[in-house]
Design a protein that fits this description.
This protein has 341 residues and is α/β, with parallel strands linked by helices. The protein has a 6-stranded parallel sheet with strand order 4-3-5-6-7-13, with helices on both faces. Strands 9-8-10-11-12-14 form a 6-stranded mixed sheet, with helices on both faces. A two-stranded antiparallel sheet has the order 1-2. The protein contains 11 helices and 14 strands. The N and C termini lie far apart (56 Å). Helix content is 38%, strand content 21%. Helix 1 links the parallel strand 3 and strand 4.
Length: 341
């Protein structure tokens, strides 16, 4: 069956942007997915990774007719109106990509019990028509921590987080464990911007860490782009990333040694299959190296200078251990105490 992919034009209104497909022309067997995000589909981070995952999943599920629309720059307070449009147009699955949408999703799910909703990151088990998804990003943080702990010469490493919760907290603590596994004497500077999308604050935090001697930095969520840009202005500091898109930015090409990423295609494909089979929600879908939920790659321009054969072997060995035992390898990630660093 020929695949149908509809990426609609974006209509920008004050404080609101949305895209909507033309469900009137879709076949009866069309599966409709809507994405609601607080930033944009090209933010080189959190929102783009989900958008890319949906488009990849559609390409890989060529036996299905899938219609896809997205709404950008949607604050939780504004998301209800566009979600109701999606419901009215017959969308089967509405993904609100961010834990900040939790309350809105739960309200909508109660109002529309026949529609499936999903939000993340969260490990909570929601109502029967709500899915959650949780990246076990302590794994990706650990890999990047191994690189940072090995490559630092100053023995000072910077970590710029958004908020200390969800997958960001998991990434940060996994990163600390990764650094300590290869370099227990390294000093790790941890700070949070308090925002997932404040590039300016992220840049300021990174600049402060660079001023305190950090020579390798990392950060998660879309706000990390600001920290990467600040790192790019340093003549010596380097970066390890939490999104593969960072490898292709101007700053990333020069500074990002390697990067991990969430492979949301794996989540989206499972969501489509579950909803199509009659399972509307009530489950949490994990993401890890074992189920293909994570990707990892090196910067081809920097690998020779920054990734030794021994370091690459260590990374390969670690990823293999995650694939073999996703539940137990970093079971103690939550025990990391920043005050002891």
């Amino acid at each position: 069956m020929k695949k149908l992919l509809v990426l609609a034009l974006v209509l920008i209104l004050p404080f609101m942007a949305f895209a909507s497909g033309s469900s009137e022309t879709a076949d009866d067997d069309t599966f409709r997915i809507a994405l609601i995000i607080e930033n944009t589909i090209d933010d080189k981070g959190w929102c783009q990774s989900m958008h890319d995952g949906i488009t990849q999943a559609i390409a890989e599920m060529s036996d299905k007719n899938i219609e896809y629309s997205y709404a950008e720059k949607m604050l939780p307070v504004d998301a209800g109106s566009i979600a109701r449009q999606y419901v009215a147009q017959g969308y089967d699955l509405i993904i609100a990509h961010g834990a900040q949408y939790k309350n809105f999703v739960l309200e909508m799910a109660e109002e529309y019990p026949d529609v499936s909703f999903a939000f993340g990151t969260s490990s909570e088990i929601g109502p029967e028509n709500v899915f959650t998804y949780m990246p076990e990003s302590e794994e990706t943080g650990f890999i990047n921590g191994i690189i940072a702990g090995t490559d630092t010469t100053a023995n000072i490493i910077g970590l710029v987080g958004p908020v200390d919760s969800g997958d960001s907290a998991r990434y940060n603590r996994g990163f600390v464990l990764g650094v300590q596994s290869v370099n227990p004497d390294a000093k790790i500077l941890v700070a949070h911007t308090g925002s997932f999308s404040d590039y300016v604050k992220s840049s300021e935090v990174a600049t402060s860490q660079l001023g305190n001697g950090a020579d390798i930095l990392t950060g998660s969520s879309q706000q990390a782009i600001g920290a990467l840009r600040a790192t790019a202005e340093s003549p010596t500091a380097m970066w390890v990333g939490q999104d593969l898109a960072q490898l292709t930015t101007e700053e990333g090409k020069a500074k990002c040694i390697a990067a991990s990423a969430y492979n949301y295609a794996a989540v989206v494909k499972e969501l489509v299959e579950k909803v199509s089979s009659g399972v509307k929600g009530g489950e949490c879908i994990p993401m890890n190296f074992a189920n293909g939920g994570f990707l990892f790659d090196y910067n081809p321009d920097l690998k020779a200078d920054w990734v030794s054969a021994d370091l690459e072997a260590k990374i390969n060995e670690t990823i293999a251990s995650f694939q073999a035992d996703p539940d137990g390898t970093l079971a103690d990630w939550a025990a990391v105490d920043y005050s002891t660093l």
